[in-house]
Structure formats: C-alpha cells, structure tokens
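TICKET: design request
STATUS: open
ATTACHED STRUCTURE:
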C-alpha cells in the first residue's frame, strides 16, 4: 500500500522534475507529470525513485513523450493488490 510518506519520499528523490501529481486511487496508485526534456531522462528518474521504494512491493513506470500525447509520466502502484482485487 502506498502512503503519503512514500509518495513524499519519491517526490523528494525525483526532485524538481515533478510538475504536478495526483492520486489515481488513494493508497494504491499515484501519478506525476514530469519535466523530461529527453528520453534518456526516464532512466535517471527511475534510478532516483527506486531507493525511495527499496524494500516495498511497489512498481514504477516512467514514460517519455510529448506532453500532449501522454498524460501520465510517472506511475507508482501497488500492483500486486490491484491485480489480485481485479
């Protein structure tokens, strides 16, 4: 389960790249719009966020692309419980 503290740690780790963020499902999935000027920035964001999630069963995904083409850029989700509940 994601908490405000975990999200805060991820935001702190990713830093100024976070332009906006919101919960998709409180405690389960959180998203952030990121400032990613080039595709190689996705690996940098993942590397920065992973230590904040080190021992937690939480997945992250970072998508690069034109801001107008993709609304979600960083997704943190407790997929195990989400998939099991589905």
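STATUS: resolved
RESOLUTION: sequence designed for all positions
ATTACHED SEQUENCE:
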């Amino acid at each position: 389960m994601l908490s405000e503290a975990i999200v805060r740690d991820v935001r702190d780790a990713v830093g100024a790249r976070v332009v906006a963020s919101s919960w998709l499902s409180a405690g389960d999935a959180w998203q952030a719009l990121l400032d990613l000027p080039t595709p190689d920035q996705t690996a940098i964001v993942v590397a920065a966020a992973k230590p904040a999630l080190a021992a937690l069963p939480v997945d992250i995904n970072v998508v690069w692309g034109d801001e107008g083409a993709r609304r979600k850029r960083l997704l943190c989700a407790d997929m195990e419980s989400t998939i099991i509940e589905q």
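CLOSING REMARK: The chain has three helices and four strands. The first helix runs from residue 4 to 14.
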